[in-house]
Amino acid sequence: MYPTKIHYRPDIDGLRAFAVLSVVLYHAFPNVVRGGYVGVDVFFVISGFLISSILFAEVDEHSFSFTSFYGRRIRRIFPALAVCLFAVLAYGFVSLTPSELAQLGKHVFFGAGFLSNIALWSESGYFDTAATLKPLLHLWSLGIEEQFYIFWPALLWVAFQMKAKVGRLLAVLFLVSFAINVALSLTNISDDFYLPVSRFWELLAGAGLAWRRPIVLTSNVRSLISFAGLAALVTSAAFFTPELRFPGWLALLPVAGAVALILAGRDAMANRIVFSNRAVVFVGLISYPLYLWHWPLIVYAYVIRLGKPPTPLMALGLVTASFLLAWATYRFIEYPVRFGAHRYLCTQIVAASMAALGACGLVVWTNHGFPERFPPLPGIDVRKIGNAKLDADFKPTKDMEVSDHDWTLVAHLGHGERKVALSGDSLLFQYGPRVQQLADQGQLAADTFFVTGPRCPPVPDVLQQDKFARCRNLPSKLIDLIRREKLQSVVLGAAWSGYSAEGMQIEREGRRLSLDTQEGRDAFYANLEDYVRLLQGERVKVYLVLGMTGHRRLDPSEMVARSLTGFQIAPDVEKAVPIAELRASLATADAKLRAVGERTGATLLDPLPDICGGGESCSPFFGAGEPKFSDRTHLRPVFVQQNVRFLDFLLK
């Protein structure tokens, strides 16, 4: 056996500083430090090394106690977390709508039980865009870490009692967890990201360092290893992007970098010069409360700004405030509880406090965010506005048979002699609930397919950046489906006017044209026209859905005016939008679509009458004060089910 009993290493606190600063800067300046999320992986390695070093030594010396171990974990983790949870929940009572507060209560409950990763995993989906509305999202990593320490001490104690080969046990567990990680990264990245079993290998990498046989290395070799580790971490933080399928194989780079720096030892050159610097070590000492505080501050800035990211100056102020709160938490709460007198009493108090906070979160959750906090308003229900914002806008319905083809979603619903495909981006897929409603009522008479992808227009050779680059395969997937299933009708729809952003291009006749130029936009509709003719060559009837309306007053996020001290209903919330104004915003795209229809014979379909009715204005609400939209452009499933019928003639 070769357990390593370690003494305090300032360079490891310095490594903590790198980890936490990477994450904080990634969240505060996401367009600058795009790979900063790897800091969490560095934390996992450090934790596995330090905690396992203590465990190995205590078990080997027969001084290990489960009570002592978990008492230390409680004093280390609970104090700062309890203060943060209390503050975040308390401010939520002031600033959040009932549905938002209910979700926060749920996250407080699961956060207090160290199950945040499981709760967030259950909420994740194909089109999950709500990260900046979840102040406790970052607790997923704390959940994984504490879940590891539920089973690891017990497993290690049993292994020592049975005189098992701990090194072999470590290797097997590491390889199994890493294999699961790689497999999930290829099939479901949300599972890979949030589930503990696919992350344990990172903590086990640190544990393996703690168990290693002592290695005699020259100072030059140690310095070389330390610089290699530093290079691996800097490369990961600088060049990784959120669109990568992470963790998967890619997580090996930051994990290997952290392992190399710990292996090199405190006297290696990079460890001594960079990571043992007093200022860097100080950041490492407050890294845990800094990690806890920074994300809720950033999220509440998003909330107050109605979903808009903080300005650079505001982000800098939030980072500064995070540092001040982290120092105060460490100095006046964490340090006295961990190292002061009456540790047994402190353990009981902080454990009881955490249980009470979890119970408070549960009460808030089950009471739907206490809507009675706000006085009733004639015709307006704050709860319904909040619920509208939480509606999923790219979610398969309950009976859809779904397969994911690298960002293109192929879904099937119903059976019948008629075979219909609907293809496009999320503005087309949002009509899925109507198809499901017809199926539930026994009226669906068509074999119905969806070939869709988030921000994926049904137009060949549109070139986008990052994860949306994979949209390019959508048109070919539809062709494959037509030939395989012998489809008779195809409906194409998209946010036609939304594909003119900077960075988007289209390829036509060997040239790449920017879609934010007139020439590029003309090429976009020329490619659409060619594609319609290609589909017609497959003997299918083609339909084009005209532009989908979008307006500030239709967006439930705009129905609430935010400030630091809370929110109020916007004064123009009930004011209808003139149809002429909506038509004007769609005029350019609709004219292009009409021209394509005239030249190809494709039939045009107009969803606006179903959405707005036959009058001269469009109300933001339907039924008993329910918002029609979940955001500026996406309709709510419940509204689509009951009101959007312009496709019924193909389906019923």
Characterization of the model:
The protein has 652 residues and is α/β, with parallel strands linked by helices. Helices cover 56% and strands 10% of the residues. The strands form 5 sheets. It has a 7-stranded mixed beta sheet with strand order 1-2-4-3-6-9-13, sandwiched between helices. It has a 3-stranded antiparallel beta sheet with strand order 5-7-8, covered by helices on one side. A hairpin with a 2-residue loop joins strand 1 (401-405) and strand 2 (408-413). Helix 1 (10-28) packs across helix 12 (269-275). The longest helix has 30 residues, at 66-95. The chain starts with 9 loop residues before the first helix and ends with a helix. The relative contact order is 0.10. The mean pLDDT is 92.
Short overview:
With 652 residues, the protein is an alpha/beta fold.
Keywords:
652 residues, alpha/beta, 7-stranded mixed β-sheet, 3-stranded antiparallel β-sheet, 56% helix, 10% strand
SSE layout:
Elements: H1 10-28, H2 39-60, H3 66-95, H4 98-112, H5 116-123, H6 140-161, H7 166-187, H8 189-194, H9 200-211, H10 219-239, H11 252-264, H12 269-275, H13 278-285, H14 287-304, H15 312-339, H16 343-366, H17 382-390, E1 401-405, E2 408-413, E3 418-424, H18 426-429, H19 432-440, E4 446-452, E5 462-463, H20 474-485, E6 489-493, E7 505-508, E8 511-514, H21 518-537, E9 541-545, E10 560-563, E11 566-569, E12 577-578, H22 579-600, E13 603-605, H23 608-612, E14 617-618, E15 621-622, E16 626-627, H24 637-643, H25 648-651
Parallel strand pairs: 3-4, 3-6, 6-9, 9-13
Antiparallel strand pairs: 1-2, 2-4, 5-7, 7-8, 10-11, 12-14, 15-16
